[in-house]
């Protein structure tokens, strides 16, 4: 049981005992017990006096506890009033003074209770605000005397009605005031809560409980039991006094006991202090300044290497001080300590007298003055600081080395906050120490250091490993510099990392020198282009990439035509300027991923990764156009033309030597022909490139000459047999070359960029034709238009499509845009965003040639499409090839589960149609129904087609 629980139960027990004591007291014969009553009041007087004396002694022992002063004066006054009451109630006093006022006897005991209750309440009030109220003893004594006398005179001579009415409690007004003050004091101590811990307050609170209960109980007694309640009340008053006395005695006992414990603890702590002083090598001394004699502790004697027989005088002390420090110490003692009264505080060296060893000590001292203000004594300590001094010297040397280091040094905490930088850091970065302390080193971040460098650095540091590398940083003035940094985790003895130390060297100039040296070794000094040595390294890398990715690599050998004539006629200075200009034009005409190198003279070698013959043709054409522009050099207008030979890996060679040789051979073919052109290695490829170039040039005029035309192939619903849509297909009829296949001219249009203009014409024409058919009364149908990858990447594609639809006034839901599977998987995230945008506009989207690419099902479910078009390569052999049947069936089932429509292209037989119908394909198109038709023939087909009948083979 806790102490608080014990005290709570004791309160309850006291209350119960008082309630049970009342009927017991009533059963005692009290009548005629005046002498006994007087005896009890004498006991009460003695008890009150005893409590007052003990409380006063306790207060004088510890004047900070003013509660005991209040209790003392309160019980002194109560003792006076109780003594008076004992006197006036005795028969002896009544016989001597027969004329005594009758009010003195019945009311004097009430005066005693009122006086004590007021003082107990006042003691609570003062203790509650003890930090803001200080008791003046003289005023308290005066107040107590006056209040005691006033209480006595008031109750002795003021006529009051009888105090013993037979009615209930509230008619006894005279006793209500003490009850009020006792109750307030009791409530205050209970609420304050200190009685739970303080012994005296605990017993004082118990006495208040007794006082309140006996006041209330005996106030309710009738006149019939006058003697009983009169004497019993006085008896229980003694109980209250005894309770206070018990607490006071316990408090004093506890104080004495604690005093003994404290003395024991003091002795123990003194011994510990000596032990600690010995460990700290801390000795003490007392110096008599008049006689020059000093007394030292054992520790100090041991520190000085002396014993009690040593001459403990100023001369003896002088011998102990190191000769190099004696003058300094003597001047300090005289001029600073004795003359100005400053405390002694100095570090100096001593020579131990026992072994002549030199030690560093730290001396402290305080001067004591006599009544005249003259120094008479100095008391102080001397501590051996030899080891600290050595450590301090080492630390000072280290600090100077760090501060004067030619490298920047930075110390951070584990969160990367800078705790220290040296002078070189501020010199290199331009930041002051105050500007960077508490900051993160990222204030130097330039954004030019690869993120992988930081990731590698933290991977090392978090594992407790040292990291070394190079970082590109930015100074305060925004200039860029390069640092070679070594960052080391600082570990405690237990391996815990506490800090990071970075030692960094500015290697900007070194890097520039290396770059210059590398430039000399790997770059042509005239044009700044890579030389043969750099070209070999690039070729090795590019060939490896081409082999691993199974991609083409184009090598071009470019030679300037008749360049020798410029050197011979205008001089090499003009020739060099021409080469510089040509190098810049070549760099401008190619991509960043491409490589151009000058082998020497007017010969340039170029590498084009992932570039096939068609793309190479366009690049060569662009180069010829750029280089052939007029060039002005020192007032000389020159026209330079190139001859270009083209070799492509792997067809024209699988190593660089072979590719270069073949490209050079092709270049000489151009030289031998007409110059100012390009030539492939093989005749077949050359013919193909010539055909492509012819078509590209012809395609530029096809729109203007109305050579392009849209054909429409109907799309049939398998379930109803109705025409529900048509696919718009581009056709080109050249006057001389005849019909040109879309498979041939569309890639040329894409590579040359003409597909943008042609694609817009196709969209506008197909949408306008669909609206015209609807206006002519045809049943509305969906028009499907293919988008190339170049069109799809247009930033204004959505605006273009919606503007055409609005211009023609065709509802958005009648347009379907087809993307090939390869286009959708090139950049799925971008495709999803575009599809979402079109979907919000109500424009349908479908995937063409499905099954021929590498679709990701995880992306497919995110695409906002409504139809998959099964490629005709799977439909062609569907009647005989089980693999094709399985693939088509799987595509239809997957689309159905995803909630997508399916359409099969290239349907040519009834067997194919039956298979598709059986497996749930929604739509079909192909020669079984109709080939692509011009608009007029398509209209006739719609007229002739029986919309309500099952699909039958077209006669077209």
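-> sequence recovered:
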């Amino acid at each position: 049981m806790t102490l608080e629980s014990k005290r709570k139960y004791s309160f309850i027990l006291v209350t119960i005992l008082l309630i049970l004591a009342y009927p017991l007291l009533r059963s005692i014969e009290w009548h005629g017990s005046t002498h006994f009553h007087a005896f009890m009041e004498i006991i009460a007087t003695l008890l009150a006096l005893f409590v007052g004396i003990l409380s006063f002694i306790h207060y004088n022992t510890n004047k900070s506890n003013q509660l005991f002063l209040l209790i003392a004066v309160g019980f002194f006054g109560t003792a006076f009033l109780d003594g008076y009451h004992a006197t006036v109630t005795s028969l002896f006093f009544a016989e001597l003074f027969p004329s005594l006022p009758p009010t003195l006897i019945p009311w004097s005991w009430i005066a005693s209770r009122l006086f004590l209750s007021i003082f107990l309440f006042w003691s609570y009030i003062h203790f509650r605000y003890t930090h803001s109220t200080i008791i003046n003893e003289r005023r308290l004594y005066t107040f107590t005397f006056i209040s005691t006398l006033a209480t006595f005179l008031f109750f002795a001579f003021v006529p009051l009605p009888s105090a013993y009415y037979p009615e209930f409690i509230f008619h006894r007004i005279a006793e209500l005031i003490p009850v009020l003050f006792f109750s307030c004091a009791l409530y205050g101590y209970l609420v304050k809560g200190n009685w739970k811990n303080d012994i005296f307050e605990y017993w004082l609170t118990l006495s208040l409980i007794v006082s309140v209960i006996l006041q209330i109980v005996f106030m309710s007694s009738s006149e019939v039991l006058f003697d009983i309640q009169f004497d019993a009340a006085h008896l229980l008053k003694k109980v209250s006094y005894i309770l206070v006395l018990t607490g006071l005695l316990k408090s004093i006992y506890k104080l004495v006991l604690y005093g003994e414990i404290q003395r024991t603890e003091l002795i123990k702590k003194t011994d510990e202090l000596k032990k600690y002083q010995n460990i700290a090598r801390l000795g003490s001394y007392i110096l008599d300044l008049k006689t020059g004699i000093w007394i030292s502790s054992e520790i100090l004697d041991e520190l000085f290497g002396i014993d009690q027989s040593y001459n403990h005088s100023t001369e003896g002390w002088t011998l102990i001080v190191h000769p190099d420090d004696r003058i300094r110490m003597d001047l300090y003692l005289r001029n600073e300590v004795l003359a100005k009264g400053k405390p002694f505080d100095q570090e100096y060296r001593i020579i131990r007298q026992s072994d002549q060893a030199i030690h560093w000590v730290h001396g402290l001292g305080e001067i004591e003055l006599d009544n005249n203000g003259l120094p008479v004594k100095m008391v102080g300590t001397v501590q051996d600081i030899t080891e600290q001094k050595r450590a301090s010297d080492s630390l000072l040397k280290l600090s100077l080395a760090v501060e004067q280091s030619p490298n920047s040094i930075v110390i951070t905490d584990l969160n990367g906050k800078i705790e220290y930088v040296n002078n070189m850091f501020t010199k290199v970065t331009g930041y002051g120490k105050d500007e960077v302390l508490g900051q993160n080193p990222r204030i130097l971040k330039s954004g030019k250091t690869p993120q992988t460098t930081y990731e590698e650095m933290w991977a090392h540091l978090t594992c407790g490993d040292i990291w070394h590398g190079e970082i590109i940083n930015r100074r305060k003035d925004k200039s860029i510099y390069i640092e070679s940094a070594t960052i080391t985790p600082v570990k405690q003895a237990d391996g815990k990392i506490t800090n990071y130390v970075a030692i960094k060297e500015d290697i900007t100039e070194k890097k520039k020198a290396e770059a210059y040296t590398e430039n000399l070794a790997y770059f042509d000094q005239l044009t700044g282009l890579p030389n043969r040595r750099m070209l070999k390294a690039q070729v090795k890398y590019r060939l490896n990439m081409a082999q691993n990715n199974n991609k083409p690599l184009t090598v071009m050998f470019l030679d300037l035509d008749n360049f020798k004539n410029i050197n011979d006629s205008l001089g090499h200075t003009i020739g060099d300027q021409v080469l510089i200009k040509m190098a810049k034009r070549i760099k401008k005409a190619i991509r960043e991923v491409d490589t151009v190198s000058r082998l020497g003279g007017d010969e340039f070698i170029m590498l084009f990764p992932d570039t096939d013959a068609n793309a190479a043709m366009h690049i060569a054409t662009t180069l010829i156009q750029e280089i052939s522009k007029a060039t002005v050099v020192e007032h000389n207008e020159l026209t330079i033309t190139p001859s270009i030979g083209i070799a492509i890996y792997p067809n024209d060679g699988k190593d660089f030597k072979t590719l270069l040789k073949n490209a050079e051979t092709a270049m000489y073919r151009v030289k031998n022909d007409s110059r100012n052109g390009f030539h492939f290695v093989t005749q077949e490829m050359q013919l193909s490139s010539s055909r492509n170039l012819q078509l590209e040039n012809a395609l530029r005029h096809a729109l203007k000459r109305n050579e392009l035309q849209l054909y429409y192939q109907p799309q049939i619903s398998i379930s109803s047999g109705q025409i529900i849509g048509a696919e718009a297909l581009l056709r080109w009829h050249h006057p001389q070359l005849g019909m040109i296949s879309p498979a041939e001219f569309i890639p040329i249009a894409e590579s040359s960029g003409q597909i943008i203009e042609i694609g817009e014409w196709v969209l506008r024409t197909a949408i306008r034709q669909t609206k015209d058919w609807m206006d002519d009364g045809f049943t509305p149908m969906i028009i499907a238009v293919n988008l190339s990858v170049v069109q799809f990447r247009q930033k204004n594609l959505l605006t273009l499509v919606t503007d055409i639809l609005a211009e023609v006034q065709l509802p958005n839901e009648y347009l379907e845009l087809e993307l090939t599977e390869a286009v959708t998987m090139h950049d799925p995230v971008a495709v999803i965003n575009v599809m979402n945008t079109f979907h919000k506009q109500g424009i349908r989207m479908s995937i063409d040639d499905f099954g021929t690419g590498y679709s990701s099902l995880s992306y497919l479910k995110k695409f906002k499409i409504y139809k998959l078009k099964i490629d005709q390569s799977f439909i062609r052999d569907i009647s005989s090839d089980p693999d094709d049947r399985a693939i088509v069936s799987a595509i239809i089932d997957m689309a159905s589960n995803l909630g997508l429509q399916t359409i099969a292209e290239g349907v040519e037989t009834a067997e194919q149609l039956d298979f598709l119908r059986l497996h749930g394909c929604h739509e079909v198109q192909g020669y079984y129904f109709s080939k692509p038709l011009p608009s007029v023939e398509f209209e006739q087909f719609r007229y002739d087609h029986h919309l309500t009948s099952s699909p039958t083979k077209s006669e077209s």
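Confidence is low (pLDDT under 50) at residues 24-33, 161-171, 222-230, 947-956.
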